[in-house]
Amino acid sequence: MNSRKWLIIPVEVQVRELLARLLVAAIAADRGFNVLIGQDRVIRRLARYLPRGILFDKSLDGKGDRKVRRYANLGYTIAAIDEESRGVYSEPRFFFSRRLSDEALSRSARWFCISDLVRDQAINFFPEYSDRFETTGLPRVDLCRPGFSAIYEKERAEIKEKYGKFLLFCSNFGTILHVRRGRFLQNQMRRAAKQAPGNAAYRERVEAEGRINLEAYIQMLPKLREWFPDHKLLVRPHPTESHDTWRSILGDHDGVEIVSGGSANPWILASDCLVHHGCTTGIEAELLGKPHVMYAPHPDFHHDTEVMKTFATIVHDENSLREVISDILSGKDYSKPRKSLEKYYAAQVGQLASENVIEAFDKLTQKGGELPDWLPWLRFTPRHLVAEYWPRSAAAQAYSKQKWQGVSLDEIRTTLDVLREGAHCQSSVEVEEIFPQLFSVTRR
User: Fold this and answer.
1) All domains of the chain, ordered by start, with CATH?
2) pLDDT at residue 183 is higher than 70
């Protein structure tokens, strides 16, 4: 597995990131990279033993964080595309103060942008590092193209067979319903307050507006079953939210189920209509060609953005919500012109965002190295045994499980086959699990 080109891809939130990062891995392997992809926590523990290639992360650091510093000191070439980049559209100052910093950029090679708008904002906030910002588009958006529909078909069909006709609500009230609400979120709030003046007030406003909207949703959701009794209602919590809380809120209502697992896309595709509160799943539904509606009962500057006005049909009261869903179920088309969406998410046609990312990698230098043959034995060292088996609180275990459910080698291989076909990859690949939840993908 020696090569001058290595790509290491940590994945933090499996249901959000894994498919898109596997697409990047597939294309990278096809173009000659040796790829290591797996759970973020595993890669962090193994970082000093892995080849010093390009480390493609899901974000860089805000002020005071240490992740990028450690990877840079170890000799990695660091690049990232922030999975939360849409936050730039609602409040650039808060986004950049919390999720990016001069220190992180000084130690990194690239911060990929989902659009030219995001790139221009990034340069405005960090002009000294303008050469670090490059518009590629978001690889997750690639998976909404028709050529990748097969990746979801089996799961979509299974969901449809199990639940029949249903409306889907994808929640994004993670700050309020966080599975580790308490000290964990308080520490996040304190860190945000230190990163820039005004951040604490911003977070408080986000939470206050989120709470009043959440209360309206709790009142509205059971009515969906009354209005459309021939449809079940499936509620899919955000990966950070407490499922038990949602069960306590809606568990007594007939025909309402709390669901989770896998990417949101097959659930969206199996549904007859998605209801959301300015969630990224609304953007994905529009790109997938599935009907959706944003219910915005109260002002919420964090979610009532121009990007959502471009992508979603937005209603502000229950009567309008009922009317729009009725129209959708009757076949009315509320979809938006696709060209108008390119402004906020680049690379929707033509070359894939994932291909743009790989082309950028080809221009970067890296140290390389070898993958040690003894790496698998590290699972028996104290550090890894403690990380695997040390008892943690129930909330911490639930949070960890929601972020990474686990994936088998067969699942990785099967998924890569479909992704490679959709991306028209030419070479065959070899896939191995070289450490628990860390996989190598190499061209044969």
Assistant:
1) 6-142+347-443 (3.40.50), 146-180+208-341 (3.40.50.2000)
2) no
